[in-house]
């Protein structure tokens, strides 16, 4: 996926901190959806780190490309894994003990384990500088 971003500052290792406008599901055309979008959501930005092979400078408007596979993997870990572990632990606990309350308690434990794995994965991504964005063009200096 390609997006437009603004370079905030340069980072070591030929990387840059960028500000990417958060995109809504409707594509930010609030006049077409009857006011369902809030102005605050449309105007908010997400800060990210991008590879900077083109030497973009702070203040530049750039075109960035995200690595879809990595973004989808992270989303699966953050959103799906806790939910999946909740149901696995819940049904396994209920089946083994024949008590619904035990199954629900174990489901909560599974959910917490999923959250812990998501936090760990986030730390690994940050520690290894596994950026999801790369600057592909400098649009405006």
UniProtKB/TrEMBL annotation:
Pfam families with a match to the protein in the record: RseC_MucC (PF04246)
What the entry lists under InterPro entries is as follows: SigmaE_reg_RseC_MucC
Regions that span the bilayer: 71-96, 102-121
**Which stretch is the leader sequence?**
none
- Could you list this entry's UniProt keywords, alphabetically sorted: Membrane, Transmembrane, Transmembrane helix
Q: What is this protein called?
A: SoxR reducing system RseC family protein
**Per the UniProt entry, what species is this protein from, by scientific name?**
Candidatus Flavonifractor merdigallinarum
């Amino acid at each position: 996926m390609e997006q437009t971003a603004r370079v905030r500052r340069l980072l070591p290792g030929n990387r840059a901190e960028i500000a990417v406008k958060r995109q809504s599901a409707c594509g930010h055309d609030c006049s077409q959806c009857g006011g369902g979008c809030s102005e605050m959501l449309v105007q908010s930005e997400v800060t990210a780190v991008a590879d900077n092979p083109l030497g973009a400078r702070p203040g530049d408007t750039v075109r960035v490309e995200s690595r879809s596979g990595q973004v989808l993997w992270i989303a699966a870990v953050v959103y799906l894994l806790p939910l999946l572990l909740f149901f696995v632990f819940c049904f396994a606990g209920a089946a083994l003990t024949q008590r619904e309350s035990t199954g629900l308690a174990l489901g909560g434990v599974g959910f917490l384990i999923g959250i812990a794995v998501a936090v760990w994965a986030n730390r690994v991504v940050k520690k290894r500088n596994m950026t999801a964005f790369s600057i592909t063009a400098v649009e405006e200096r």
